[in-house]
From TrEMBL:
It holds the Pfam family Rhomboid. This is Membrane associated serine protease, rhomboid family. GO terms for cellular component: membrane. It comes from Flavobacterium cucumis. One of its GO terms (molecular function) is serine-type endopeptidase activity. It is a multi-pass membrane protein.
Amino acid sequence: MKYFSVRLSILILPYVLVSLLFIMGYTFLNWFFCIYTKWVAIKEMYIDFIFPMLISILIVYFIIRPRLHILKLAPGKDTFGIQFLIALSLCIPTVVAQHYIDKATGTLTKVHRITEISKLPESKYYDVTIFYLDTTHLGMYKTSSVSGKYGQYYNFKLYIAIPMFNTAKDTNGFACKYWIGEYYSKQIRNSLSPDEKARLAKEFLRESERQFRTTNFSNFTYLEKFRKSDDLEGYEAAIARGFYADSKDVIVFARRQEAFESRLGTTFEWIFYSWGIGTLVISLIFLFAKLNPARITKYKKGTLNTKSDLEDFLILLVPRKDFFTTPILIHLNVLIFLLLFFFGFGFMHVKGSDLLHFGANFKPLVLQGEIWRLLSSIFLHGGFLHLLMNMMALFFAGLFLESLLGKWRLLLLYIVTGIAASLASFIWYDATISVGASGAIFGLYGYFIAAIIYQSFPYKMHSGFLYSLLAYVGINLVMGLIGSGGIDNAAHIGGLVSGFCYGVLFPVEKKK
C-alpha cells in the first residue's frame, strides 16, 4: 500500500486522537458542569444531541477537512461526503456517551415517605414506600407544534401532572411539591383543514383520557427526576394550570417500571461499538483512497491551500461599502434567533406562545393596540430550518438588489414590504401566529420583477437570479395553495405585490 505512513500520520492517527479526546472531553464537561456541580442548566436535548452534533461539524471543518486536501479526487468531486461520515462517526458515540453518563451517575435513594426527599441530599432516582396520588386534582397542559422539514406534520401533546402526598389527609391547601408526569401525543398531517384538525384534537383528548383512566400510576419500581427539558417545562405549565397552582420549586418524576439495575441496558457497550464501527469505516476510507503526491509535499511544507468555498461565502457576509444592508439584516435575524435559543426557547422549533411573547404577528393583539408586532414579527422565526431557508433567500435577493438600490433604499424596501406582508396576514387570518422574514423577502423579489420589466438590470444578470426567484416564489406559493402547513400565503402575496408596486412607483434609473 503506497504512502501508508502518510495515511497513518496525516489522516488516521489525527482522526483517532481527535475522536477520543472529543468523546471523553465533552462527556467529562457534561458530567462536571451539568450533573455534578449543576453550574450549567441547559435543556438535555441540547446537551445530549445538538451540541455534540454542532461541535462534530466544527471539528471536521477546522481540524480534519484541511487534511483531506491530500486526497486525489475525480474532477468535479469534493470531500463533502467524507466530511459528513466523519462528523457522524464523531457525533454518534458522543451522543451515546451522554445518555450513558446521565443514567449511570445517579444513585437510587430509598425513602419511606415522599416528603423525606427534601431532607436528604439531592438524587436522581428514588424508591418511595408510602405515597398518595391525588388523581382528582390534576394539572393539565395541552400544546401543539409543527414539525418536519417542510412543516408537513402537526403534533398534539397533552401533559398531565399528578400530585404526590404522603397520605390523602395531606391534600389540604393549594400547593404540592412532588409530582408524577405523564404525557400523551399524536401526530397528524399539517395539510388537513382547521375543522379536521379540531376534530382530531378532540378525538386525541378522548383517547388520552381513556388511557389515563386505565393506567395504574402507582405501579412503578422507582422514580426518575426530570432534568431541565421541554417535557419538564410542559409539566410545570400543567401544574400552574391545576388545582395546586400555588406550588413552588416543584419536583417532577417519571415512573420507571424496569429493575433499577437494568436501566443502562447495553448503553455502555454501544459507546465502544459505535466508536469502533465509525473508526473502522473512516480508517478503511483513508487506507484505500487515492492520494495526490504533489499536495502531500505541499502539506508537509505548510504551503497547501486548504481554504474552502465556505470561507469565501462567509467573507461575503462581512458588511462592506457596496454590500452592507443585506449582511446586517442577516446578522440581526440570526442574532435574535440565537438569543432565543440560548435563553431556552427552542432550536428546531420555537413554541407559538414564546413567539407571541417576543412580538409575533397576531390579529387579536394587534387590535388591542400592539401595532409594533407588524414590524417585530419579520425578525422572528419559528425554528432553525425556517431561519435557514429565509436567510438563504435574503442573501441572494440582497446580493443583486443592493447594488441596484443602495444600502438605505434596500433597507427601506425591506421594512415597507415586511410591514405590508404583516398587514396582509393580519387582514386575512383571524387568529394565526405569523412570524418570519419571508414576507419582506417576497417584497424584494416583487421589486426585482418590476426592475426586470423596467429593464433596470443588464441582461446578463437576469437568467440565473430569475430562475432562483421563480423557484423560491413558485414553490412557496404552490405549497401554500395546496394547504401545506406553516406557509403564510397571505404574507407572501402581500409582500410580493407590495414589492412590485414599490418598484413601479419608485423605479431606479435604467442601467446600460
